[in-house]
Amino acid sequence: MSNELNTMPWIVWVILIPLIGAMLCFMWPRRGKLLGMITTLITGFTAFMLYLQLLDHGVIRYALGGWGAPLGIDLYADGLSVLMLLMTALVGLGVSLYGVGYFKQDGENPAGFWPLWLLMWAGLNGLFLAGDVFNLYVTLELLGLSAVALVALAGSKEALSAAMRYLLVSLLGSLCYLLGVVLLYHAYGTVDIQLLGALVNSNPATYGALGLMVTAMMLKSALFPLHFWLPPAHASAPAPISALLSALVVKASFYLLLRLWFDVFPAVTTVDIGLVLGTLGAAAILWGSIQALRQTRLKLLVAYSTVAQLGYLFLPFALLSPIAWQGGVYLMLSHALAKAAMFMAAGNILKYGGHDRIADLDRVAQRLPITMTAFCLAGVSLMGLPPSGGFIAKWLLLEAALTHNQWVWAAVMIIGGLLAAGYVFKVVGYAFTKADSPHDARPVPLTMEWAALGLAAGAIILGLNAHYPLALLDIGKPFAGMSP
Amino acid sequence: MSAWLPLLVLASSLLPGLIIFFLKEEQSRTRIFLNIAGAVVKLGLVGLMVWGVYHGQTYEARLPLLPGLELALQADALALLFVVLSSLLWLVTTVYAIGYLENSPYRSRFFGFFSLCVTATVGVALSDNLITFLLFYELLTLSTYPLIVHRGTDTARKAARVYLVYTLVGGALLLLGTVWLYTLADTLSFTPRGILSGLDAQYHGALAVIFVLLIAGFGVKAAIIPLHGWLPRAMVAPAPVSALLHAVAVVKAGAFGIVRVVHDVYGVEFASSLGLLMPLALLAAATIIYGSVRAVYQDDLKRRLAYSTISQVSYIVLGTAIAGPIAAIGGIIHLVHQGLMKITLFFCAGNLAETLGVHKISEMDGIGRRMPWTMAAFTLGAFGMIGVPPLAGFISKWYLGVGALEAGQGWVIWVLIGSSLLNAAYFLPILYAAWFKEPASAWPDEHVFSGKETAWALLLPPVITALLSLAVGLLANATFSPLQWAVFIASLEFMP
Fold this sequence. Notes:
Chain A is mainly alpha-helical.
């Protein structure tokens, strides 16, 4: 890497590029596809450059415009944030490719998709790199609003009502979070994460902020029992958007929660709060999986599966060991790829047959083999079978649980895996058999099939060598401030 | 070369399989070429590996997976035994499957998964540690599912679902046991005489529970009672799949896993000092008798063979659990012998169904006159199962019996006698009906092959495997016989 490239402020570009791309797409909607694809590639490139920079320099802190904290805006990148950026870039690439095929057809609204999606990407990247809690709020709002607009894009009645509900939930969450920020600022006079981490001590304002912010993130990450808004929103959106929501948006709020937990509140978090979060996570795994099993519509099934999989992310709060956090983050990665692939596959099936009733899938396995392969590979990762990223994650989580003889958690994970197998194979089984009512078949563009397969293959490849992603987590040691 | 060879052995079925998925249905020649070429190349590579090991080479390939854990392949004596068996039988089964599925739909998908299935089996054979084993074991589950559901009927879908419920629950137990074992032992490598004897006595209780978890995980595929329910139902699959499932891939992977756990994870001595082997031996004995009894009452030929499999596979488990060197030889050798004999029987059953539409034993009167070669092969296989000398099954039973006496477990003799009598009770009536009864006036659904009893591709495989099962019995004392190899494997475990 030449010196020039090495010293560029990639940390800024990785937020600016999608923002600029979004504006360009907005101004030239007819060129949206081309501009969107170019932006996708450049954003991916900048994320990769930032990754290289991180490997060279370690943790990066960048003061925008030269004003450092507490006055100016600080950007901050450690291993975890860069991992999130790379994950977003990978899923983003898949979604953009998919979008090119998806919005080619009649009846879909391409003009809205590209600017909103790139705006959302800017919000995501900004969130992963924000160095203070107020900027986290700004990016969270940006993310939430663009997500709501994307859900509404389908224009159908269900989509609009789901979008409305999503909007209210999203605003409620943001509001709670903002109140927390206000409390913190009032008590400590700063919003910088690092400074707050050093100042925070146990007093009522801190506990108020902790409660508000954690609740907000639970709501936004759809943790059971606050998941009610997720299935309709994720299921009624157009397929590429469902993929984005399930793979990335809910992960962003979870990431925010991690930042708060480890960097802002380490002084006041207790084992008991962790236990509550973990228990809710376990309930989410069981409840989400059972609901998924009961669904008769494919996209709803996939959406409930997200509820279940998000539950796993909260188990490490109760498992209390670094291995568990590695497992949690790994699950986040592999679920992002697998679930995006699965929603895309579901979208293909919906496009192809005009419906997504599981019992009437009518030999999809024979007629859309690439899509079905994508669905199955993604399913393997969700079930946690080897070789897949989901397996590595489950292995780490189980190892953490068994090392400390925490049997209940291990049992929940094993049962969750079996239930996941149940709902995945329910779909696969009907994909092999003939349905009573024959399909009308509409062609599915090849880019859509291959985008799904590519992401699903990514989830499998994550299972082959976990060293690199896990080594990244050592940069900046995001889980160093772990409670005992 | 020493790292590449195990990978090439895997790739020789994986790559053709992946290519086959993308072939069009009409590209029959390309598909046949890829299938046969893959199978022949694999057999050649395995031969090379055996030759290398004989000359003191070691083969291993490693890929880091997690801190402290690797995906690792190696070729020790036990691995070679299984790998030779599966690559040999794969070649034969491929020829058979090509003949069997001629002109049926979705062949590309079928042969793609067929190749994946063999890849997984070979991976199971070559695994150097439990996590690699687990990986290929689950891959095997997943790649056999589409083979069972292949016909696309509702019965097939339901049978496949039952299969999945059993095997995935088994897999989950296996995963739990494996992780737990790892947290205690910090390693999962297969080592003769085990990796656990150094562990503190306070963990012995946990180790016993882990043993149960692992055996339950493997026992599902090995169809030990009460975990056998999926096997008779999986008979809806096409005949080559049944042959593969019963003789090489699925049930064998389970039995092989049990051998690995007892020999190379726990170690026979340590496992028996924990008191774990006696219950296992009793369970295996019960399975042997139960399977045989159920087989007697089946009229459907494939179902009878399926119950016979349940019974016969447990010989392997029994031999392993008796905890003596000679019985261990009997168990290990039965991996090979049961494979050869059972695949013959399933090929023959497939031939009867495909050529004459005969599925039931009650329809088999006089069938020996219509299909003499097929029934001759069937007869050899059946006599082998009963344990008539000098066929393969006799050697297995002999070593099991002698081994049991040597280990002071005389009761096993009664199990062997009882099982052999039952074997005779369910095989001899078939043979009698086939050779000595008058044929019915017309067969249920006859296809005529000009001048032959059936197509070459269907006839040659069972004849070859039947002759092999005769040969491994007759030539048991030759230097390169499977028996001598099993003796060598057992010596690694039992010799100081």
